[in-house]
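Here is the promised in-class demo. Please do not try to memorize the tokens; focus on the logic of going from shape to residues.
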């Protein structure tokens, strides 16, 4: 009986680079490059899923790096568009989340929109853009809103309980 190494046990380096069973997020940049140059639709789909899951994450940055040195056609152009759209979608979701938080602070304060806007130092039109998610307020303004909301919520609670 002859003992020989199984040739299929360890994939060749080129095959391993884009047919890696590990999640795409753990692939080195060389594997991403190889996958874009030599991969097929199933490999590209794995990369797209990783980009959509984390549009500013490691895989997205690796794809950006590879695309910087690629011609803008084929899969390169498609992945470039995926990056743009995934990031736009993420930013829209973040603005919507910020808008929900601003609405929560406004409602919790018990103040009318105009009064709330005045007390945080912005115009009512600016507050409206925060509430509809068109624009996200700066972090410092979010802190100001929370403090105002806390103060008025506390005052309302004291009045409701008959406190001073």
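The designed amino acids, position by position:
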């Amino acid at each position: 009986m002859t003992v020989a190494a199984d040739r299929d046990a360890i994939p060749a380096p080129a095959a391993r680079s884009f047919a890696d069973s590990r999640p795409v997020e753990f692939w080195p940049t060389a594997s991403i490059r190889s996958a874009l140059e030599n991969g097929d639709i199933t490999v590209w789909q794995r990369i797209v899923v990783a980009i959509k899951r984390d549009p500013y994450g490691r895989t997205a940055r690796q794809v950006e790096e590879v695309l910087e040195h690629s011609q803008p056609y084929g899969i390169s152009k498609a992945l470039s568009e995926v990056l743009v759209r995934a990031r736009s979608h993420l930013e829209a979701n973040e603005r919507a989340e910020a808008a929900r938080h601003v609405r929560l602070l406004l409602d919790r304060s018990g103040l009318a929109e105009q009064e709330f806007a005045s007390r945080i130092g912005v115009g009512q039109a600016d507050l409206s853009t925060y509430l509809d998610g068109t624009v996200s307020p700066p972090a410092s303004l979010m802190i100001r809103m929370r403090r105002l909301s806390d103060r008025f919520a506390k005052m309302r609670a004291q009045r409701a309980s008959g406190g001073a």
